[in-house]
Amino acid sequence: MNKFNYGTKFGHWTIVNSNKQMDKHRQSSRVCRCVCGTIKLVREWYLVNNKSTHCGCKAEELGRLYGRIHGDAGNPNKGIKPSYLYNLWSGIIQRTTNPNELHYADYGGRGIIFYLPWRQDYTKFKSWILQNIGERPSFEMSLDRINNNGNYEPGNLRWATQKEQCNNRRNNA
User: Fold this and answer.
1) The dihedral of CA 122, 130, 143, 172: what is its sign?
2) How far apart are CA 39 and CA 106, in angstroms?
3) How far is CA 56 from CA 25, 90, 101, in A?
4) What's the rounded mean pLDDT across residues 127-143?
5) Structure pTM?
6) Radius of gyration of the chain (CA)
7) For the CA atoms of 17, 22, 23, 24, what is the dihedral angle to 10 degrees?
8) Of 12, 41, 158, 169, which residue has the fewest beta carbons closer than 10 angstroms?
9) Are 39 and 54 in contact (CB under 8 A)?
10) Cβ atoms of 143 and 135 closer than 8 Å
């Protein structure tokens, strides 16, 4: 059965032409329509692996929504910077999911993932951190994975000093 039939949905994308096409990089792609009406050629791999779920319209909407819900995203138009925890959450997402991110090879590139409920909802991440390991004890500490080969997930995070983090590297095993 072809999972790329006309009308098949992937997030906010809907397949509008079941014929496979090649994008400019010769990758198998499909013509899709976003819920906002944008039509775009989207790689099959991105669709089946949830790497592209919309054209970007929902990302902006969700960003505004999250900013209103928790207030941690900041507002550059008003000179309000994002909170430390929000920047941390955003950075983890980039390191574990974005192949173009400078440190992706050390995280997502070696299979380290960000616990999906946290990746999808900053408020769940923030709540777990505050309830289980607390506020960051000092500016000298940052979030560390207890098991350096483990994921960003419940039970594998702690606040650690730079020295503790240096002792928790792959080359120290």
Assistant:
1) negative
2) 35
3) 21, 17, 19
4) 93
5) 0.58
6) 19
7) -150
8) 169
9) no
10) no
Q: What gap in Å lies between CA 4 and CA 103, rounded to an integer?
A: 33
HEC states along 84-121? Answer: HHHHHHHHHHHHHHCCCCCCHHHCHHHCCCECHHHHHC
* CB under 8 A, 24+ apart: contacts of 16-21: 20/44
pLDDT 10s digits, 143-161 = 999 999 999 999 999 999 9
Return mean pLDDT, the chain: 84
Distance, CA of 42 to CA of 56 (rounded, Å):
13
Per the CB < 8 A criterion, the answer to whether 139 and 160 are in contact is: no
Query: Could you state, in order of their start, the residue ranges of all structural domains in the chain?
Result: 9-48, 62-172
Residue 54 is classified by DSSP as: S
Closest CA to 2 of 44, 56, 51, 38: 44
Tokens (6 digits) for 131: 């309830």
Coil, helix or strand for 131?
Answer: helix
